[in-house]
């Protein structure tokens, strides 16, 4: 049976829009069913956290100004006042500036058939998506409905007003005391930013550390930084009840009763799944998403997805990577596999945390004694000392054959520095690639080279025979030199 489209994208998320553009550039016939319109709130939820983090970093940098000989006239002028409404409006202006190319009219000019209605799948007589009064028949379908915050079941939580990444814009003024429930990257970044802006912040996590998916050594360094700045972090503390009393929100956290004027849920994300009648077309659900294979096919092989959270985290760059793989498989044959080992993950704290690949515990579990752990501190970098940003270090987990198994950075510009390492890993290159790359002085990128150069030293220390041969070679060179 002939169909009208090569690909029908269901959902107006950023990844879905990019998937539709990619497919039409490959000369495919594409339909984009917006469902709930263009999902600008998805982008806004990330940019609001970023704006708060950047504002708090600016305050920290201003405090370092005397190091560079800059002084204000009076002490009162040394701390700028923060206008909350202006701060929260800035992400809106950024989105307005960047979103013109994503509007339905602009997408239609590219050749995408944009359908503004909402709809659902129907099975008979053949797999079809019914959008309003229109039937969309396609060879393949891509679910691109985006993410939203995961809200755990806590007694009383549904009886109070709480904030998530999507609803942070409703906060009309800076709270005096914020309780963050959970320690995901969004919640941790928000906790530090608001604490620097003058809010008292308490982070409550059930596990032993914040950022539960991150390397333990790195997560504890971020936790120590936040605690040194005044953020209260309660680990091993499950929340049993939440109540609203006399204008305050009370949280029963372990054996403590905490009062605050706002709470923020930071328990990760889940796939946004409106009523699409997925069960009728054989698509099975799982916790926070759908059951998919390594080719991003759901349990109905003609339906793909690009909004699948990884380890409970939903990130725009991961969704766009999923979309690129799904489009390739949907338009040809499903041969391309998704590979998350080379996808960086970032927590936008100050200093930032970034990682790619295995944690140290995972590396030792998979490869045992063949793993070398390379470390180098930002304290040893001229650029870090000059900018008064020396906190943090780089850790590379390297197999004895030179292949990088994982990389973890806590330090300035960690979100930018992680990408060269991810590229080296993706291309199957060795740690010597980083060690031999000539770099500009002084830059923060030197941390990668200096860490990578630890590989030869550790290999030499491990191999006594190789060490003796090397020392013998050097001794012979001295003896024959005239």
- Separate helix tally: 14
Rg over CA atoms, rounded to whole Å, is 26 Å
Mean pLDDT: 91
**N-end to C-end Cα span:** 86 Å
Silhouette: globular
Helix content: 25-40%
Summarize the structure.
Helices cover 34% and strands 23% of the residues.
Features:
482 residues, 5-stranded antiparallel sheet, 24 strands, 23% strand
What does this structure look like?
The chain has 482 residues and is an alpha/beta fold. It has 14 helices and 24 strands. It has helices at 14-25, 40-63, 84-98, 104-109, 185-196, 216-229, 316-331, 360-367, 382-386, 414-426, 431-436, 446-452, 454-462, 464-480, and strands spanning 5-10, 30-33, 113-115, 119-122, 128-131, 134-136, 138-143, 147-149, 177-181, 200-204, 232-234, 239-245, 248-253, 256-260, 262-265, 269-271, 285-286, 289-290, 303-305, 345-347, 352-357, 371-377, 393-399, 404-411. Helix 1 (14-25) packs parallel to helix 7 (316-331) and helix 2 (40-63) packs across helix 5 (185-196). The longest helix has 24 residues, at 40-63.
Outline the secondary-structure elements.
Layout: E1 5-10, H1 14-25, E2 30-33, H2 40-63, H3 84-98, H4 104-109, E3 113-115, E4 119-122, E5 128-131, E6 134-136, E7 138-143, E8 147-149, E9 177-181, H5 185-196, E10 200-204, H6 216-229, E11 232-234, E12 239-245, E13 248-253, E14 256-260, E15 262-265, E16 269-271, E17 285-286, E18 289-290, E19 303-305, H7 316-331, E20 345-347, E21 352-357, H8 360-367, E22 371-377, H9 382-386, E23 393-399, E24 404-411, H10 414-426, H11 431-436, H12 446-452, H13 454-462, H14 464-480
């Amino acid at each position: 049976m002939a169909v009208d489209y090569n690909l029908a994208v269901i959902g107006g998320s950023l990844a879905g829009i990019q998937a539709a553009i990619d497919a039409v550039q490959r000369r495919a016939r594409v339909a984009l069913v917006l469902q709930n319109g263009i999902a600008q709130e998805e982008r806004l939820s990330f940019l609001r956290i970023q704006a708060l983090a950047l504002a708090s970093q600016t305050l920290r940098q201003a405090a370092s100004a005397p190091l560079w000989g800059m002084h204000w006239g009076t002490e009162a002028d040394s701390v700028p006042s923060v206008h909350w409404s202006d701060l929260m409006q800035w992400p809106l202006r950024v989105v307005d500036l960047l979103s013109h190319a994503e509007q339905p009219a602009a997408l239609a000019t590219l050749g995408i058939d944009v359908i503004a209605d909402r709809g659902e799948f129907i099975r008979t007589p053949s797999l079809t998506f019914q959008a309003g009064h229109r039937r969309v028949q396609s060879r393949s379908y891509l679910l691109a409905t985006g993410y939203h915050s995961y809200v755990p079941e806590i007694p009383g939580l549904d009886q109070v007003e709480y904030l998530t990444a999507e609803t942070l814009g409703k906060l009309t003024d800076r709270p005096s005391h914020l309780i963050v429930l959970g320690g995901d990257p969004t919640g941790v970044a928000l906790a530090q930013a608001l604490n620097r802006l003058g809010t008292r912040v308490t982070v409550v996590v059930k596990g032993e550390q914040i950022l539960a998916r991150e390397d333990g050594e790195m997560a504890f360094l971020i936790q120590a930084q936040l605690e040194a700045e005044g953020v209260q972090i309660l680990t091993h503390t499950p929340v049993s009840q939440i109540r609203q009393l006399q204008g305050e929100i009370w949280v029963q956290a372990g054996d403590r009763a905490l009062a605050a004027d706002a709470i923020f849920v930071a328990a990760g994300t889940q796939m946004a799944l409106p009523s699409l009648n997925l069960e009728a077309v054989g698509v099975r659900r799982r916790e926070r998403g759908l059951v998919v294979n390594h080719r991003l096919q759901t349990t109905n092989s003609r339906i793909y997805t690009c909004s699948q959270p990884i380890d409970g985290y939903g990130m725009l760059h991961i969704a766009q990577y999923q979309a690129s793989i799904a489009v390739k498989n949907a338009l040809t044959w499903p041969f391309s596999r998704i590979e998350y080992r080379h996808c960086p993950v970032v927590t936008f704290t100050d200093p930032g945390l970034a990682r790619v690949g295995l944690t140290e515990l995972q590396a030792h579990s998979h490869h045992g004694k063949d793993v070398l752990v390379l470390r180098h501190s930002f304290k040893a970098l001229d650029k870090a000392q000059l900018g008064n940003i020396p906190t943090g270090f780089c850790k590379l987990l390297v197999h004895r054959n030179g292949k990088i198994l994982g990389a973890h950075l806590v330090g300035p510009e960690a979100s930018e520095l992680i990408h060269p390492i991810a590229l080296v890993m993706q291309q199957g290159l060795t740690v010597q690639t980083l060690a031999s790359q000539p770099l500009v002085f002084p830059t923060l990128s030197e941390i990668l080279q200096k860490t990578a150069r630890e590989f030869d030293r550790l290999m030499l220390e491990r191999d006594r025979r190789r060490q003796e041969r090397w020392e013998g070679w050097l001794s012979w060179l001295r003896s024959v030199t005239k």
